[in-house]
UniProtKB/TrEMBL annotation:
GO MF terms, alphabetically ordered: ligase activity; SUMO transferase activity; zinc ion binding
GO BP: any one term: reciprocal meiotic recombination
Biased composition (Low complexity): 153-165
PROSITE patterns: ZF_RING_1, ZF_RING_2
Protein name: RN212 ligase
CC terms in the record's Gene Ontology section: synaptonemal complex
Keyword field: Coiled coil, Ligase, Meiosis, Metal-binding, Zinc, Zinc-finger
Protein's UniProt keywords contain NAD: no
Coiled coil: 96-123
Length: 183
């Protein structure tokens, strides 16, 4: 059962033979008898310019819903909301699954590359250092040579930049995945 319709001017309800009822753009309902008494395109209640729409079964669902009981509307729209919610949940799960798979592949690639780097470091021959013929003691470049030492023996022959292999040895690789990648 719908909400009872009545004229906002004479308060009559639909009866047999039923006069046609119209709704204004300002939200008032009038029977056709009262509409004929008033001015055309003017609301009988608020006296503003308005448009009229005859109430029938062919009017838009939005207008029809104005005359439905609230509990009926709730049931109708709760079904729609549930369908939309279910669709969006499936969509989010699908997207999440895709990203989890992508992250797993990237972590697997990182793990393989880390293992390859570790294997390369293990296979690297030990670095050969040639002892300086002049020095048998300290390599501190700031030490003052004694009379018995050669003047050139206290200076370091190494360059100020470490070699690539020395840099690789000092680099630390964390094989554990970052907490930001965990899902």
């Amino acid at each position: 059962m719908a909400v009872p319709v009545f004229c906002n001017s004479c308060l009559c309800e639909p009866r047999n033979p039923t006069p046609r009822f119209s709704i204004t753009s300002c939200g008032h309902v009038f029977c056709e008898i009262c509409l004929q008494k008033g001015k055309k395109d003017e609301c009988l209640v608020c006296r503003t310019a308005c448009r009229m729409l005859v109430l029938s079964k062919e009017i838009s669902p939005d207008i029809q819903s104005l005359f439905m009981r609230v509990d009926v509307l709730c049931k109708k729209y709760s079904k729609q909301v549930t369908q939309v919610s279910d669709f969006q949940e499936k969509y989010r799960k699908h997207l999440l699954t895709y990203h989890k798979q992508k992250i797993a592949k990237l972590e697997e690639s990182l793990k393989k590359v880390t293992q390859q780097i570790q294997q390369m470091q293990c296979m690297k021959p030990p670095e050969k250092t040639t002892p300086l013929p002049f020095s048998s003691t300290s390599r501190n470049p700031f030490s003052i040579p004694s009379r018995k030492q050669n003047v050139y023996s206290s200076y370091s022959v190494h360059s100020s930049r470490p070699s690539t292999s020395e840099t690789m040895e000092t680099m630390e690789i964390d094989p554990v995945p970052s907490p930001m990648r965990k899902v």
